[in-house]
Amino acid sequence: MHQFGRTYRAFMAAFESYVGQPMPRWRIMLALHDHTGGGLAQKQLAERLQMDPGALTRQLKVLEQLGWIERTTDARDNRLTNVSLSDAGLSVVLECMPRRVAFLHATLDGLPDDQVQALSEALAVIETRIAEAPVQLGMLIAEPAEAR
Fold it and tell me: PROSITE patterns annotated for this entry (predicted)?
C-alpha cells in the first residue's frame, strides 16, 4: 500500500508539473469539455466525477475566478446551477491537451498492453472494495466477538 500511495503522489505532482493543471481542476475542465449540449448541472458534474459536492464547489470557485468557467442558474429549474467552459477555459483545455497526451504516453510507454489492462482491472477491484469497506467493517463491528 505504501507503493500505491507513493506512486499516486508522484503521478499527481508530475501531471501538474508537466500539464500545468492540478488533476482535480483538470478533471473538471475535461468533463465540461467532453460534455456536449451546453452547460452541465453542477450536481451531474459531481456525480460524473464521483467528487464530493463541497470539494467540487471549491474547485469551481477557483475556476470561475480564473475566468475559465461560467456558472448560471438553470432556466427551467432555478434550483440548479449549470456549469460550462468559457472561451478562455476552452483555450486552456486545448492548450493543455497535447501535454496531457504526451504525459500519459511517456508514463505508460513501454508497458505491455496486458500489464496496463491488469493494472486497470486491479485498480477497479480496489475501488470497489473501498466503496464496500464501510459496510463490511460495520458488519464486523456489529458481530459479537465470539462469532468471529
Answer: HTH_MARR_2
Cα angle 31, 37, 41; round to 5: 60
Residue with cell 477491484: 125
pTM (2 decimals)?
Answer: 0.81
CB 51 within 8 A of CB 114: no
pLDDT at residue 146, rounded to an integer: 56
Over residues 14-43, the pLDDT tens digits come to: 999 999 999 999 999 999 999 977 789 999
Contact in structure between 45 and 59 (CB atoms under 8 Å):
no
- Crossing angle of the two packed helices 23-34 and 87-108, in degrees rounded to 10: 110
CATH class of 2-109: mainly alpha
Q: Which of 65, 63, 66, 30 is nearest to 48 (CA)?
A: 30
